[in-house]
Amino acid sequence: MTDSTPPVSDIDLFDDAVTVDPWPTYAALRELAPVVYLPANDTYVLTRYEGIRNALLDWETFSSVNAIGFNPMVNEALTGTSLASDPPVHTQLRATLTENLSPRALRGLKATIDTKADALVEQLVNKGSFEAMDALARALPLEVVADLIGFTGDARDNMLRWGQAAMQVIGPMNQRTAENFPIAGELYGWCSNVTAEDLQPGSVGRGIFDAEARGDIPPHTAGHIIHQYLGAGVDSTIASIGNIIALFAAHPDQLALVREDPSLVPAAFNEVLRYWPPLHVWGRRATKDVEVEGLRIPAEAHVGILFGAGNHDPRHYDDPEAFLVERNPVDHLAFGYGPHGCAGQGLARLEAHAVIDALARRVERLVVGPEVRIPTNITRSIEQLPVLEVVPA
Amino acid sequence: MRIVLDRERCEGHGLCEEAAPDLMHLDDDGELVLDREEVSDDDPAAAARANGAVRVCPVAALRIA
Ligand code: HEM
Ligand code: SF4
């Protein structure tokens, strides 16, 4: 009989050094085994592409209930959201959530987002040097999501803090999580009290309240939907746009390819997401004893999905450490997959494609200084990215 | 082989259409239409596109039967 107990590793996924540079850790875990038990996080991590993709599809075995986060308080707080539900409840919640996020619903936004992104990039190219996270990576999603939800005044200023906190608290009960719970609580409080009149007429946010008033969606769901847009949609998108800028600065030859052939814009974003997925790790719970590639995960165990480890698995992608826009890795794991596959990916694509397109038209090369990263629990984002010089197109 | 769409799951992301434009398209309302459900095994290029469409759907709304 072969031993089906997964190997154990003393790695702590939320150790400061690991969160800032997880790549050696991902590689070590992936080469150790497809499933590794981490006592420090009390989680069985899935480390290889196939195991991750299959688990994301198999919600009956890998449940999202009481499972997404790495501390009991956040799992309790997420109860009843689409993120933390399984079908059939999830199917219904997701339908209301995606109604306003489907590519069809977003069609009208494309021109506005393209114009915003292009104006921002034009202004920065003229400036010549700037801090790219604030000036572009944060500026665009904050404006787009604020307009989408119909934010005015106060809430707009808070979006960044709230979005960051909502992701931090998914981590284990470390200092970062403890410090961010009160901020995530502010977001929750605001969403519980917001009314239609607080939101700009004609905005998607206002539309969700109108749907609630008409009885198209159950009472009190409008605030929850807005909560999810803010919690799930801000920090991750910011990270992905920062990554676009940094990766194109580091790989001018790849920017040149997109400049020559703008039809590569979607492929380039897929490769950015594969190369540096914005989310570090995400949870599930095994509903029964299950074997992944011959290694046993016991019923009720917490399971950790390592998006970045899967996206760099050489069993699935040739030469995974190379950043190649022509690779077009359409099946990357950064948006998850299957029933919970990112509900906001259409919006994220609109924003990112607009940025890549504007950069490719207006910039030949970006000269950047060293990027600053700080430890964070879940979102892997650059904190500061100094652009020292723009060589315009 | 036959392409099967789970209409409940489909959210109109349209990535399948990019992979297999001859087999499916989004209509003006953003609903996916399967233009060809049956793909002959004698047409390996079309079969590969069908498999590609299944693979790329981010919410697993397509499968091959
Ligand atoms: C590049 C940016 C983004 C990344 C990398 C990302 C990543 C993800 C991932 C990995 C999941 C799956 C979670 C799971 O399997 O449990 C997810 C779900 C979700 N995302 Fe995104 N996301 C992004 C942008 C957005 C935006 C812009 C929005 C909304 C405005 C959004 C809203 C959601 C929602 C509501 C869910 C839950 C879906 C469900 O439970 O069915 N995301 N996202
Ligand atoms: S990719 Fe999937 S969700 Fe998108 S249109 Fe095709 S079947 Fe529907």
UniProtKB/TrEMBL annotation, chain A:
Name the UniProt record assigns to this protein: Cytochrome P450
InterPro entries xref list: Cyt_P450, Cyt_P450_B, Cyt_P450_CS, Cyt_P450_sf
Natural source organism: Intrasporangium calvum
Annotated family: Belongs to the cytochrome P450 family.
Keywords: Heme, Iron, Metal-binding, Monooxygenase, Oxidoreductase
Automatic annotation (TrEMBL), chain B:
Keyword presence, Iron-sulfur: yes
InterPro entries: 4Fe4S_Fe-S-bd, Fe-S_cluster_ET
Superkingdom assignment: Bacteria
Cofactor or coenzyme needed: [3Fe-4S] cluster
Pfam families to which the protein is assigned, alphabetical: Fer4_15
Keyword Iron-sulfur: yes
Alphabetized PROSITE patterns for the sequence: 4FE4S_FER_2
UniProt keyword annotations, A-Z: 3Fe-4S, Electron transport, Iron, Iron-sulfur, Metal-binding, Transport
Segments forming domain 4Fe-4S ferredoxin-type: 1-29
Name of the protein in its database record: Ferredoxin
